[in-house]
Design brief:
The chain has helices spanning 3-8, 14-22, 32-43, 76-87; strands at residues 24-28, 48-53, 92-97. By secondary structure, the protein is an alpha/beta fold.
Length: 108
């Protein structure tokens, strides 16, 4: 058990921690809503998260998105993955830098 899991034991019992560790979530969009939802999911104990976006971090959006100045110009999925690993380095986070359309929806 890692330090993050020890912290979560203050909020959840073993049964709930087990459920949270098995849940798999696909989050499409890492902007104002998606980046903040991803952070809350990881902080809540979700360990298996796939994040999808095709855009880059823009300085004009830092007031509402969960990124930092050093992320400006980076792919959103890579910058967000970096932030999420700083919260829980034991999480299983897949980052897909793609624009979703009908031709690639099934692969997600």
């Amino acid at each position: 058990m890692n330090l993050f899991d020890v912290m979560l034991k203050n909020y959840f019992d073993e049964k709930m921690l087990d459920k949270l560790s098995r849940v798999k979530i696909l989050l499409i969009g890492c902007g104002g809503l998606g980046s903040n939802v991803a952070v809350m999911l990881i902080r809540s104990g979700i360990k298996n998260l796939t994040i999808v976006d095709f855009d880059e971090v823009d300085i004009l959006n830092l007031n509402r998105q969960n990124y930092f100045l050093h992320h400006v110009g980076e792919k959103k999925v890579l910058a967000l993955k970096d932030t999420l690993f700083k919260i829980n380095p034991h999480a299983n986070i897949a980052a897909k830098n793609i624009k979703i359309d009908e031709s690639n929806l099934d692969e997600l």
